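Lab notebook, design round three. We kept the backbone fixed and only want residue identities now. Task for the bench partner: fill in a sequence for the structure below.
Input structure tokens:
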């Protein structure tokens, strides 16, 4: 996508180094930083300079490639897999990308690993862009259908940031929205602020703003009310891990939106790139590890001070503890459909396996 007219990806290689947008400073500052060592790649994922399942995977792939240029030994390959894999527990794209790299690199002689790793990391990024472009094209058909039926504006609610900042480009949940905009369809987006880290308020709102998409930021608790009053035509969210039977793990609060959508007859779709499917698990509630983050993200909020600096402010009393599960699982029964790069299907084992037979078989 573009920033001030210049095409951007969220991660790229330039002048022989890997660069990212350090998302901790958005929307207040566009800070671009290089990642040069394995430790920096690990910190970038763990401390959320980059975030979003597909981008976490792409960053890990580049982290492996950079390490191979430094030390392509078997020991370094194994250790890098472990170090990067330990950074965040829920987004399955991390394991997927590291496995892709290991599968390719392990049989090669060490002297060939650096070049092969860089090639595959670049390919993983390009594949992510193409997957998301296709998700957009399929999702566009849903939006177009609603626009034609209503003969008017399509109101879409989204949660967290499943935008181009969470992927390499296009985004998952936002790709249909960007495609609708390009097709001249009148869309309006309700952006959940998405406490505690406010990826909606900070990142999705910034994306919508930069690309001229009509939008309103809403508090996380407003979605049900808007749905009750017929103000939401469609919900599209992203996912960090979806099971083989269609249970969807996504940013905390997604489950409540799905319940509200079901109660109000609002279609609830999940934009799902295939590397985000975990074919090894079925029951998402029982089997997906949910990241528990620091309570400080709940007791404090981050924002811009009048002097322009980014500050953190305490909002709860001294001594109040906090729980901070970062993700939740929406059972498949609450999901209207999955928008994948191969088309839209039901959140159900047979339908998913029919779209991705080779992956379902080899799991
Ligand atoms: O904790 P984050 O910011 O890495 O969470 C990831 C997300 O942005 C969302 O859960 C998103 O909806 C899925 S990733 C496209």
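Proposed sequence:
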């Amino acid at each position: 996508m573009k920033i001030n007219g210049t095409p951007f990806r969220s991660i790229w290689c330039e002048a022989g180094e890997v660069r990212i947008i350090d998302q901790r400073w958005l929307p207040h500052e566009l800070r671009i930083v290089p990642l040069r060592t394995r430790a920096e790649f690990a910190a970038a994922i763990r401390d959320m300079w980059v975030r979003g399942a597909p981008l976490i995977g792409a960053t890990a792939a580049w982290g492996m490639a950079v390490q191979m240029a430094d030390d392509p030994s078997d020991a370094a390959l194994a250790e890098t897999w472990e170090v990067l894999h330990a950074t965040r527990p829920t987004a399955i794209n991390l394991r997927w990308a590291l496995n892709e790299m290991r599968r390719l690199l392990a049989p090669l002689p060490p002297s060939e690993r650096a070049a092969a790793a860089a090639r595959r990391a670049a390919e993983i990024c390009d594949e992510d862009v193409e997957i998301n472009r296709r998700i957009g094209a399929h999702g566009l058909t849903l939006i177009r259908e609603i626009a034609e039926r209503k003969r008017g504006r399509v109101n879409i609610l989204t949660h967290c940031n499943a935008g181009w900042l969470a992927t390499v480009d296009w985004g998952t949940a936002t790709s249909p929205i960007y495609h609708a905009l390009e097709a001249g369809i009148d869309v309006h987006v309700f952006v959940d602020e998405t406490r505690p880290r406010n990826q909606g308020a900070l990142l999705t709102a910034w994306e919508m703003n930069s690309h001229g998409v009509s939008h309103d930021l809403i508090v996380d608790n407003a979605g049900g009310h808007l749905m009750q009053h017929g103000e939401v035509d469609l919900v599209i969210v992203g996912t960090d891990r979806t099971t083989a039977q269609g249970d969807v793990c996504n940013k905390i609060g997604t489950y409540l939106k799905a319940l509200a959508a079901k109660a109000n007859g609002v279609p609830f779709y999940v934009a799902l790139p295939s590397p985000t499917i975990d074919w090894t698990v079925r029951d998402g509630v029982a089997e997906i590890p949910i990241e528990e983050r620091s309570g400080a993200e709940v007791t404090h909020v981050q924002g811009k001070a009048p002097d322009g600096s980014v500050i953190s402010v305490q909002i709860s009393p001294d001594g109040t503890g906090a729980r901070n599960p970062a993700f939740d699982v929406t059972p498949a029964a609450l999901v209207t459909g999955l928008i994948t790069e191969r088309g839209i299907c039901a959140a159900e084992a047979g339908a998913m396996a029919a779209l991705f037979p080779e992956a379902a078989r080899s799991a």
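Keep this in mind before ordering anything: The pocket of MRU is lined by residues 51-54, 160-162, 166, 172, 199, 237-240, 250-251, 326 (CB under 6 Å).
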